[in-house]
Amino acid sequence: MSSTGHRHPHPIAASFRDLEPERFEDCYLAGSSIAIRRVRSQLQRIAPYFRIALITGEPGTGKQTLAHALHQSSPGNNGPFVPWHATELVDRLLPDTPTADILREAHCGTLFLDEIDRVPFSLQSRLVHLLHQPDVQRCDLRIIASSNRELRTLAATGQFRDELYRRIAAAEITLPPLRTRPEDIPAIATALLQHITDNPTLTPEALTHLQHHPWPHNIRELRETLQKATTQAGGAPIDLHHLPLPKPQQPENEHSLERLQDVVQRHVLDVLTRCSGNKLRASEVLGISRSTLYRMLDANTAAANPRYPG
């Protein structure tokens, strides 16, 4: 039985895209890029000890899923995991409205405050008060907040209450956008398809196209794309024409104008895709050592995302 806490139906519930975050934990945290390895390392390091934590990342990167993974790995994993969205909190943070019941629902478990950056500045002092309640101070529950935007910047520019930021950011994990780690897409797509269909198969052409799509809505968009493609494929392997994405267009002689580094990198990623993400097999096909392959992939990740240096 899921450890997710259950409340009476609330209007916001219909808008939650991940009502069962535990179902997709193996998907959102899959891959071997530097960025996602760092996230998994932080998860393992923080989970046994945290009382309040902050998860930041673009929409669709899996903040609620990571929050549930933190809960499951914490000493309070036998208690409930209770998600509250910012738009729900606004109703409870109005003056003269008791907030103790918010803590009571997550007693001995984890309270997840989703999109805390959307709480109006005028009500954030109430949230500071909530986080100083005796139940929190006695460590009867753990609190995880999430934000689509970087709260450090918002606090520095006066758009987010600095006292609240300092309270929730004692332990912070940032989830990387999917577009910065295309080498992880084969592992993520395979894991997602195992939840979606009995025939989790992608053709090499379809997988290559997935790796080159920019994914503005991140893994959530990838999941929805694969769900639609599975329906279109009707049990057959998912091919390029099944994907509800713009078809790849390459101008004539485009490759002749590319840098050698780009050509080599694209070939390495293509071989890795055809080897289903198996780095040992890919290095054998490429005729290079596995350590050299790792350096090439890490260099690509660092170039695509300067915030995560190699």
From TrEMBL:
Alphabetized Gene3D superfamilies for the sequence: 1.10.8.60, Homeodomain-like, P-loop containing nucleotide triphosphate hydrolases
MF (Gene Ontology): ATP binding; sequence-specific DNA binding
Name assigned to this protein: DNA-binding NtrC family response regulator
Occurrences of domain Sigma-54 factor interaction (ranges): 29-231
Species name: Granulicella arctica
Keywords of the record: ATP-binding, DNA-binding, Nucleotide-binding, Transcription, Transcription regulation
Entry superkingdom: Bacteria
GO biological process: regulation of DNA-templated transcription
Any coiled-coil regions, as ranges: none
Annotated SUPFAM superfamilies: Homeodomain-like, P-loop containing nucleoside triphosphate hydrolases
InterPro entries, per the entry: AAA+_ATPase (IPR003593), AAA_lid_NorR (IPR058031), Homeodomain-like_sf (IPR009057), HTH_Fis (IPR002197), P-loop_NTPase (IPR027417), Sigma_54_int (IPR002078)
Entries under SMART domains matching the protein: AAA (SM00382)
A Pfam family this chain is assigned to: HTH_8
Xref: PANTHER family: TRANSCRIPTIONAL REGULATORY PROTEIN
